[in-house]
Amino acid sequence: MTQLRHLALSIEEHDHDDFFWTILETMTDHAGWSEHSSAVHGFRTWKEAWNAGNVEYLKLVKDPRVGPRFRAAAPT
């Protein structure tokens, strides 16, 4: 079985009523998070940004029974 990915969804407010989602990823140590993907435009409310980010987050989950997994290495 492949390893579970370490992903986080974060919402930032750039200006008043201008919220952006960002999906962050780290490998296994949680020491260095990097941006995986982010909104290209802002949302009027925190909840709208959260919902849009969650839609993108769930696209990373191939099987909802086991969550987001690293891709298995191709056989050589």
Strand content: 25-35%
Over all CA atoms, what is the radius of gyration? 14 Å
Strand order across the biggest sheet?
A: 1-2-3
Number of domains: 1
**Which descriptor suits the 3D outline?**
globular
What's the main sheet like? 3 strands, antiparallel
In terms of structural class, how would the helical and strand content be classed?
alpha+beta
Tell me, rounded to a whole number, the average pLDDT: 88
Distance between the termini: 18 Å
Task: Note the total helix count.
Answer: 1
User: Could you tell me the number of beta strands?
Assistant: 3
If you had to describe this structure to a student in words, what would you say it looks like?
It is a single chain. Helix content is 17%, strand content 32%. By secondary structure, it is of the alpha+beta class. It has one domain (1-76). A 3-stranded antiparallel β-sheet has the order 1-2-3, with helices on one face. Strand 1 (6-15) and strand 2 (18-26) form a beta hairpin.
